[in-house]
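Handout, section B. The chain below has 78 residues.
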Amino acid sequence: MANPPRIERTRAAVAYGDLSRSLAIRLKYGRKVAIAWTMARYMAPLIEPATAPILVPVPLHRSRLWQRGFNQSALVAK
């Protein structure tokens, strides 16, 4: 951490609560991958067109990826 990355801004698309938790759980464990597109649709307007946003999905350990069959954060970022 001698040279931490420069982060100008981060933003949450939604407040974490019962509904958002339920959606995330259904995406991750219920294999409801269509929820990723819904989440992305609500996140997209928060990106400012003048900036060059970088979306980095959180990598999964290969055993988790094998168990789930997909990386939920990669689906949302895509």
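Note. The chain has one domain: 18-77. Compare this with the example in section A.
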